[in-house]
Amino acid sequence: MKILIADDHALFREGLKQILQENFEGAVLDQASNGYEVLDKISGNDYDLLLLDIAMPGISGLDVLKQLRIIRPKLHALVLSMYPEGQYAVRAIRAGASGYLTKRSASDELIEAINKVLKGGIYVTTAIAEKLMIDFRPDTGKPPHELLSDREFQIFCMIAAGKTVSTIAEELNLSVKTVSTHRVHILDKMNMKNSAELTNYAIKYQVINLTD
To answer: Which domains does the chain possess?
Structure first.
């Protein structure tokens, strides 16, 4: 079995590597630290499983998932993210992921998820499974934040968490002007006037948790 671990934190990759070596004897483990490296490696190698972070330099995990549909449609991808499942799980599954776990999950749950995904299943909690079913309703019935594009939603979460436009631009490798334009579109789509309103909304709908 060949597994690609994609995360921009070396210590986290090494921790995952150790867990996998202990539970999947003989598995060949490879690593990538950003979205571009992930796409390069999966283009030239046949992996059985991709363990993928959402927030990475270059191309985000969501964008990587969308590319997988084109270049490696049969590759199983399990998302391991620092973000609560309420933020990104549904979007990740929509984009093509076979499962979603937070980085706070126990190693036993990780192994369970990997085994299920490798057998062709989808690993999500009951709450997310129910949300995926509800997701088939028309857009008019969805809360405003679910109408944002993936990039807009990512920036919305960062703004709501108190990050400045310049900080967001640096972390996402975008220009300040691009982030500012996204902010304008976000405010317009959500019918809000400022970042404080975005933060209040995000807390009310449990999109973010400022105690994390």
So the answer is: 2-134 (3.40.50.2300), 140-204 (1.10.10.10)
